[in-house]
């Protein structure tokens, strides 16, 4: 007797998941993103113009967020 969930399980076992960024390069990607966030955040903090929020602040915060997650995963702390 076959169930739909069992069919999905069997089909998934034939094609394993391959991540876009492999385990070996997570440290490099995380370090680059964190350095980018540091640079963009530094430039953002030096300028006082309001237009810099979407141009510098948003990419800096996104780079920091993704960089922190990649770095956490690269050093072996799983979230």
Automatic annotation (TrEMBL):
Q: What is its main location?
A: membrane
Which domain of life does the protein's organism represent? Eukaryota
Q: Which InterPro entries match?
A: TMEM258/Ost5
| Compartments, record wording | Membrane
The record's keywords, sorted A to Z, are:
Membrane, Transmembrane, Transmembrane helix
Complex formation:
Component of the oligosaccharyltransferase (OST) complex.
Q: Which family does it belong to?
A: Belongs to the OST5 family.
Function, in words: Subunit of the oligosaccharyl transferase (OST) complex that catalyzes the initial transfer of a defined glycan (Glc(3)Man(9)GlcNAc(2) in eukaryotes) from the lipid carrier dolichol-pyrophosphate to an asparagine residue within an Asn-X-Ser/Thr consensus motif in nascent polypeptide chains, the first step in protein N-glycosylation. N-glycosylation occurs cotranslationally and the complex associates with the Sec61 complex at the channel-forming translocon complex that mediates protein translocation across the endoplasmic reticulum (ER). All subunits are required for a maximal enzyme activity.
| Protein name per UniProt | Dolichyl-diphosphooligosaccharide-protein glycosyltransferase subunit OST5
Native organism: Amniculicola lignicola CBS 123094
- Tell me the lineage of the source organism: Eukaryota, Fungi, Dikarya, Ascomycota, Pezizomycotina
């Amino acid at each position: 007797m076959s169930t739909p969930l069992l069919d999905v399980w069997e089909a998934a076992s034939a094609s394993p998941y391959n991540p876009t960024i492999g385990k070996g390069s997570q440290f490099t990607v995380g370090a680059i993103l964190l350095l980018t966030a540091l640079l963009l955040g530094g430039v953002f903090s030096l300028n006082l113009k309001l237009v810099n929020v979407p141009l510098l602040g948003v990419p800096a915060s996104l780079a920091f967020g993704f960089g922190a997650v990649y770095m956490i995963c690269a050093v072996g702390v799983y979230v």
